[in-house]
Amino acid sequence: MCGIFCQLSLTGARCERDKTLCEYLQRRGPDSSRDITITGAPSSYHCLFSAHVLHMRGHLTTQPLQDDVGNVLMWNGEIFGGLPVMPEENDTLVICRKLSSCTAPSEILAVLSAVQGPWGFVYYQKAGDFLWFGRDFFGRRSLLWKFDGETLTLTSVAAQIPAPDRSNWTEIPAAGVFWVDLKEVERTGSVCFEIFPWAGTRFTSPTNENTSVPIGCSVVLNQAGLELPSPVCSLNVSLPHEPNEAEKHPDSHPSVGDLVELLRSRENPAEVNRLMDVLSEAVRRRVQCLPLRPQDSSPVSDGASVAILFSGGIDSMILAALADQHIPSHQPIDLLNVAFRQQEPKRQNESVKKQKKHKNRDSRNDCVPAFSHFDVPDRLTGRAGLKELQDLNPERRWNFVEINVTQEELQQMRQARICHLVHPLDTVLDDSIGCAVWFAARGRGVIPEVEGQRPFSSAAKVILTGLGADEQLAGYSRHRVRFKTSGHEGLIQELAMELSRISSRNLGRDDRVIGDHGKEARFPYLDEDVVSL
């Protein structure tokens, strides 16, 4: 993973980076940094490429990566399938070699569409002076853009500027791959992007209908009408022949008995096993594609290589159980559980006062459980989930990290860091989720022990997240409401909408927030093979 930055000056003026933005990029990629500048002839444009790398695969490879003929690549991605990558190889080198051999746009599209895994990239193609950039089908890696009339900027993350000088950063839509002819930009003095959309998606020019396109720029379909082959199969819209008992009574509360009945049916066990097999492979790819260990290092390490955003819910429990199958038992796994301080209920205060008032009486019948400011629902389910995992594999050290956040620290870090990472998204929900994910990914908390609490800070670079499970498996309460009102057809429409907008609502934000700690988010539920089931 890395923080990538590209700035194209149409006037040939030297590019300048904002100091704060540069700091955010460096936090994403603390292991190496490099700049490369390309200048048009004769000094018609000036293009700065800057990358900051977090070493995750094979041997450390500094970016931007420039080949022998002058092509420049910045790759913020992971190849988990589709293209062969040996354990000792770095996937940036693999992609660079593939792209360097391409002479036609169709060949570049074939390389990119073959990649299974998250990516965001910027690629300068020397032959023809072309600039390519874009995000994967789901938008699992952040890439922002803005244009101020003379300068086009692309970046993984940006700093929010207070109004009225608020910058007009927007997320590059994960609608396809974009291409700009720098010679044409020089000739016309304007920026027109050609898009190569994903096949199966209906492209409508976002210039007029979508505010994500920078003001002063335009987007048109590429002249050849080329498309990127879709990395996933079309959504399964087939309906069951008849509803089961739970579906016949959608107002009833689901029970263990409903699940047992579901598994007894003839078709479902095979479907469940198939899903678990594919999801298990998706987890394996993401927990075993790690930096090479030094040859002189001990095979038994005190630090975990993998952490999981862990609420104890079914999505994070499944990830933990599957990760347990693919990570050697002598290696710990960090379970990151965040809780924000809650106020003591009024009734609790009154009970405490009453006990103090009658302290000389035998008040055993009046005792109330001790109140904990951080025993929020996710903390309680997380502890219950930990117990199940310990029973599942008692040999493994499960580091259940209780991350307790006070209101004072929340306000401080929200203003200093998190608001910039969530930007350009700006809803209350974005702020709420962004704060929770940022503190969880930081991994700084305590581990409960018999003697008390031990301070702990997770050093795992890989963080598994359950994002994508609810969107595909109808995990939100609104999905039950839609099913009650519109049946299976309505539910399928709702899930299709959820998946189509996940790139603009969730993934870029979470990549920016988790990447701020020099860690990489990985999304097993959004593995191409899992989504294609």
Automatic annotation (TrEMBL):
GO BP terms: asparagine biosynthetic process
Domain of life of the native organism: Eukaryota
Stretches the record annotates as Disordered: 344-366
Signal peptide (residue range): none
GO molecular function: asparagine synthase (glutamine-hydrolyzing) activity
SUPFAM superfamilies in UniProt: Adenine nucleotide alpha hydrolases-like (SSF52402), N-terminal nucleophile aminohydrolases (Ntn hydrolases) (SSF56235)
Record field: compositional bias (Basic and acidic residues): 344-353
Span of domain Glutamine amidotransferase type-2: 2-183
CDD domains recorded: Asn_synthase_B_C, Gn_AT_II_novel
Keywords of the record: Amino-acid biosynthesis, Asparagine biosynthesis, Glutamine amidotransferase
PANTHER family: ASPARAGINE SYNTHETASE DOMAIN-CONTAINING PROTEIN 1
Name this protein carries in UniProt: Asparagine synthetase domain-containing protein 1
Gene name tied to this protein: ASNSD1
